[in-house]
Specification:
By secondary structure, this protein is an alpha/beta fold. The protein has nine helices and ten strands. The strands form four sheets. A four-stranded parallel sheet has the order 5-6-7-10, with helices on both faces. Helix 2 links the parallel strand 3 and strand 4. Helix 1 packs parallel to helix 2, helix 4 runs parallel beside helix 5 and helix 5 packs parallel to helix 6. The longest helix has 29 residues.
């Protein structure tokens, strides 16, 4: 539960084994949900036991926590009950009318790759067609080679390669039928440089980048542009402590630069442009000691 300070805490009792963890806003805006997400991330769950999560509250926060539990923690969807009871910036009546649409626009599990095309085509039709599709789904896991982490590596490949390709495939079919459009794939500078403990992630992004390059060649004559975005270190929840890496930038700055690259219909773009645009030719040639030190 959340409260502004300890004085707002309520006395709650139960005959069961109940433990309540209060999260204090300490003057931070009510609309800022990262405190709750950070608290859930820090929870130590019993190993080897099947758990159940009941996540109900503000819609945006519920969505973020649900994603963390399913994607990062690997919980089964059937074990996560998640419902947005309200949404910041919406009145009760507005949220009641908008809720169904919000869930439909926000929910698509690319790991269920056979469902991607039907869901996207239905969405495209309901929106009256789209001009730009961004394939942005991606996860990361620290995976050591020979460490018995094949399951983690498989999950990275499934999301970053198969799920991303499924999205591009559906987008290409739709845009070709419209006679024009743009597909944007979010790859990574990691597609150009191997890094320790990131074998699966680097491999997945290298595969997706090559797929986008081939798609660009095929779709150009059909008036569909393909833009490949190679972010450097961007401060998001995809990788813990990413701010320690060189030239890490806030997500908002990266988003602005990505929008510019999309508007310019660049074939390939690096984000942030400085310094990675100038260092890009050297990727794959940096000494191993540099990346071992960062890792």
């Amino acid at each position: 539960r959340r409260a502004d300070d300890p004085g707002e805490q309520l006395r709650l009792e139960s005959d069961g084994d109940l433990r309540i963890e209060w999260v204090h806003r300490s003057g931070r805006p009510r609309t800022q949900g990262d405190l709750l997400l950070e608290a859930v991330r820090s929870l130590e769950l019993p190993a080897g036991l099947r758990g159940h999560a009941f996540v109900h509250g503000e819609a945006g926060m519920v969505r973020d926590v649900r994603k963390h539990l399913i994607v990062d923690r690997g919980m089964d969807k059937a074990d996560v009950s998640a419902t947005g009871y309200w949404k910041f910036t919406e009145t009760e009546e507005g949220w009641r009318m908008y809720k169904g649409e919000w869930k439909r626009l926000a929910e698509l599990d690319v790991d269920q790759d056979e469902t991607v095309a039907p869901v996207l085509h239905e969405l495209f039709a309901r929106l009256g067609g789209v001009d730009i599709v961004v394939a942005n789904a991606g996860i990361n896991r620290f995976t050591g080679v020979g460490k018995g982490q094949l399951a983690d590596a498989r999950r990275v490949i499934q999301t970053n390669v198969i799920g991303a390709i499924a999205t591009v495939e559906a987008a290409a079919e739709h845009l070709v039928s419209r006679g024009a459009g743009q597909i944007v794939g979010i790859s990574s500078l990691a597609s150009l440089q191997a890094m320790p403990k990131q074998a699966a992630y680097c491999a997945s992004k290298a595969a997706f980048s090559m797929y986008l390059d081939a798609a660009r060649l095929e779709l150009k004559r059909k008036n569909v542009a393909v833009t490949s975005i190679l972010p450097g270190f961007v401060v998001t929840d995809i990788m813990p402590k990413i701010e320690k890496f060189p030239f890490a930038v806030p997500a908002a700055q990266a988003a602005r630069e990505i929008v510019t690259l999309i508007e310019q219909r660049k074939p390939v773009g690096v984000v942030p442009a400085w310094p990675w645009k100038w260092l890009r030719p050297f990727f794959g040639h940096f000494p191993d000691s540099l990346w071992n030190k960062l890792a």
